[in-house]
Amino acid sequence: MHRSAHTLVCPVYLLQPHLHDDSISTLFTPTLARAGPRRQCFPSARTPLNTLLSPFSKRACTAASYPSMAALKNKIRRIGKRKGATLKDVSAWRWIKTAARHFKQEGKIFVPNCTELIKSSHGRERAPQNPDWYYVRCAAVLRAIYLRPGVGYGGLSKRFGNKKNYGSRPEHTVNSSTGPLHWACKSLTKLGLVEPGAQSGQRLTRKGHKFADSLAFQVQIRKFGQSKV
């Protein structure tokens, strides 16, 4: 069997030996005008997908089968508007920043005066540098209770712990201070978002679940919109 020097050897020919040599050479002969010397045995990158598929295939490739990225984003936005989004569907940091901004704008959370002086853990060397760190901690506590209903102050303290530097000795993980966690849970309880669990710990109320999912929906819409969180 005679093949040209630049004809691509295709597995379709091996799987379908009944095809004629002319059809295979027509389908898989590359365009040498655009290909370099090392790419002569491969099809051009601009070759349409229809020309690379076998003409005997049952389903031909059409442009409608591969929508554009804009159409895909619009479809995702329509699905999000119809079904909504939950806290687990969005990025953690985006949701926490959105919730902290909401708490600060509402002004219903009582911020203790000592938040500018205390450390969040005895493993930290300095106090938090972010002036709005208490709002961020309240949002993070709300998210932690959403993900783990019934978690207590011990679990929250372990969740927000960090590694402590002991100098030349090996560092160890220590728990965070429970004082800010108590204040955050009390503030969220006064807002009606958190309530004591059935047996122990804290859990979200129905209002808290609705609030968390509504913020997640806003984050999901902004992700596909013009602005970013």
UniProtKB/TrEMBL annotation:
Any one annotated GO CC term: cytosolic small ribosomal subunit
Gene Ontology molecular function terms on file: RNA binding; structural constituent of ribosome
Gene Ontology BP annotations: ribosomal small subunit assembly; translation
Pfam family, one: Ribosomal_S19e
Keywords, comma-separated and alphabetical: Ribonucleoprotein, Ribosomal protein
Family: Belongs to the eukaryotic ribosomal protein eS19 family.
Ribosomal protein keyword on record: yes
Name of this chain's protein: 40S ribosomal protein S19 protein
